[in-house]
Amino acid sequence: MTEEVRSRRRFRLRSNLLGKSVQTRMDVHELFGPVFEGVSPDMPMHLARIHSKAVRVESAGHVETAILHIVETEASTAEMRGAAMHNRSAKHSFLFDQQGTLLHASKAALEAYDQGSGDMAYTKEPHDEGITLKHLFHLGPYQLYPGGEEEASAGLEEGLNAIFNLQLEHHCHLQPYLSSSDGTAKWAKIEMWPMMDPVSETLALLVKRHDVTRDVKINEQLTTQGEALQRHNQELEQEQRRLEQEAEGLAQRLDAVLQDKFASSSFDSDTPIDKTLGYLQSIIKGIPPSVHTAVELYSVLSKSDTASLRQPVGLEQQLLKDNEMDSEVGQSMLQLLKGTHSATWNQLQGDGKGDPSQAEDPAASADTSASSAPTNTAGSSMVSPRHQTSEGLTAMIALSVTPMVERFLQEAELSWSFDIFGFTEATPGNTLAMLTFHLVKRAGFVQLYKLDEVKLCRVLQALEAGYQRDNPYHNSIHVASVVQMTHMLLCHGGVLKSQAMDALEHFSSYWSAAIHDYGHTGVNNDFLIKSRHELAITYNDQSPLENFHLAASTRLLQDPRNLFIPVDFLANPSSQGSMRRYRDVCINQVLGTDMKKHFDIISRFQAAFKTAPSSDAPKPSTSVSINWNEVKPQDKTLVFQMVLKCADIGHLAAPAKTHKRWAFQLEEEFFRQGDKERAVGLPVSPLMDRNQTGGMTRSQLGFFNIVGLPLFKAMAELFEEAQPMLEGVMANLRLWEQAADTPL
Question: Which residues are catalytic, by number?
Fold first, then answer.
């Protein structure tokens, strides 16, 4: 700004100030243009409100009078009117004054009328100055008013009178016109509202004109589309109902398959407690049971002792009198599930051959000592693994893991179809130790419990050395597969996800799986009991093998070289409760693998996790519907036992090739026990005589139907994410059904 301009402006303002603030309006370009570059002529903010005031300023000892300008910018008239129209409603298109002169229009309206596009277009004449309210009513060659221009003018006057004289809040006028595109007659609606012009502060007129015919068509299209969507939704709902019914039908068929598997042999798996609960359920539902049912239940209960309340009613008679089940298969199943000391078994062996007291001393013949170790397959006494020194054992599992082993370990974490035999070939002699160490460390237990990794590796290798490699079935490879299946049930079968287990119980379950057959020499409990083995005597014929596995593995941990749990943790009184829980979980899980307890455990499990009786039949609960903090400890123990029981016979769910290999290896182990029984003068157990046609593989259908399928089904009903395991069992069952009449 030049000195001349400054002086002239200062003189003009000073003459009016006299110490007071003065407000003036000034064009923004006039004010800032001489001072600032870049002030564009089309700036939208082109007006300024200026507050000017004289002030005294002291500078370098001199006092001068200066002028203080306080500038407030203002919006343009178009911006003010556009904002006011938008605040009323975004649908408004025009703003006219009381004379019908256009004050403002939306951009879309201006483009439509200026360019003359569309049915509602207005073609300006050369002498027109712009759009007026009259133009909206007088459409020239396109108007179809019966009264022509006079009727159009009357409509305009009626609208102005309604808003400005009658002061109505809204007026509507219907206008007939001719379509410029197809020449058809159409209707438009002109709507008017009163509004105060923010610039002139006088009453103005808001106007919107829209095509009623097009609106009707759009509404019809929307209605049609809405009806189509509604029909589509109905079709989707019908399809959803159909799929739900189909899924329900499939579930019912699957349930029928699972429930009716015993139909061919008329096997009744209900225990006395099951029958009693069903009787009470009928009463609760308001359906009085028949007298025959009451008499039958009375007879069942009166003949049942405490031990048989949770075994299928008449188990012995059912297994031995089943017309469609091989008698030897029935005897084998009975020995597996009840042992050889039942009255029926003794009757079958009435010739005295089954009485060990009439045979040569089997204990002496088997060359057993007074030690707690069972005999191995060669008949010699096995040295307890805890007495083996670290000689021949590495201090810890090799840290270098080949890419192949790494892939196997990753598969073990995620797969229900883990190739345990392939993993064994990649980790000879370290299969169990490496897999268990990997899972324990991956789960975070090494860090959580501050475990000594070197000692953990040492004790795992000692465990692996305690399993007899000569055993076809009960060896460290079987145990490794049990550890892996335990991991799958916990981490991918929904057990941990449902919070049925905490971290300590998770770790304890891994350990239970690793020790559950420790020291097994390939003979079963019945052989130990019949031969009056020292273990049977020590444990009073009550699960001698399972008790030995627990005791021997515990002694292994008592060696300071193997104690991988920190000493300060064990010495801390606050840790005693955790150690007690760890012991309880391991003891209950390992003892639960004795098949003599099978029906008791599964019966209690099913009773514990069914919904409360109601007017409908009780249905199994699911793990997600259970508040596990409210579950009784003894019922949680059943879950822990079911996990290891399923894992222990997990090969029933393995891929067909793996399952068949395990089945034939178990058959060979049974044959070896039969050889020992013959050698010591004991009657050869059913399906253990290699001189007979077929072995335990003949009993697979019975074992699946009576033991395996109900076990896995009960587990998958509570933990639905374990369904892949049940599907694997069903697949292998079909395999045995197809091969029932021909050898595999």
Answer: 474
